[in-house]
User: Fold this.
Amino acid sequence: MHNMPKKYYALFTLPTIIAFAIAFLIPFLFGIYLSFTNFRTVTDTTWVGFSNYIRAFTGDKNFVNALWFTVQFAIVSLILINLVAFTLALLLTGGVKGTNFFRTIFFMPNLIGGIVLGYIWQLIINGILLNFGVDLTYSATYGFWGLIVLMNWQQAGYMMVIYIAAIQSIPTEMVEAAKIDGANGWQIIKNITIPMVMPAITICTFLTLTNSFKLFDQNLALTAGAPARESAMLALDIYTTFYGRVGYEGVGQAKAVVFSLIVAIIVILQMRLTRTREVER
Assistant:
């Protein structure tokens, strides 16, 4: 591979570059352009400058509410999902009988589609809440914690598998040496396990953050933004604006651009923060 003439590099990379440009780069750049226009179709546009961005923040309070709701959801999900996944990984790498069975059981929810999962948990949670005279749409608080439960149930098993792989790659000699020196279980986790699995933590926090911010189908199935769009997350709010309000296509596109920038900035900061804590093996 290293001896391949450079003139062939373009031949092998060109198909990938073309596919990337057609599927992502060109639509993304065209979407940015549309966010500065008023349009009904992509061939009938009128330039309006930053008007759509101003309307997104000042003329539509739902976007700000959805942004705050999503940020809160992402923070809580980030903590709970990784805490649950890491705890399960520690338990299943500690010699528990039936480890392979439990790994399969915990991972299976990740294979269920978001819409199906949303309706399943809607039936379960509403079945419990109706005993108290309320349901998921009674308050945004119920919708928030319903989404938290759903997201944890779906994602924790997937993150658990990543943590298990990282924990199993820790040299046993290092753990045994710590035990000989008198380290207890918590000291081993704090000073050996966590530093050694930081690459896995970086991956899992990245996946949790991005999945939390772009959550759409579960939100649509579980609450559909009720009551009064108070439980709508960013993706659902953008969808509702773009397809549900005539003349707001440009505003919806502006929201989508802002959404992309927010996610990109947060993910970059998260990656830099966690990578600085990774340990060289």
Summary: The chain has two domains: 6-51, 61-275. The mean pLDDT is 90. The beta strands are 37-41, 44-47. Residues 96 and 115 are 34 Å apart (CA to CA).
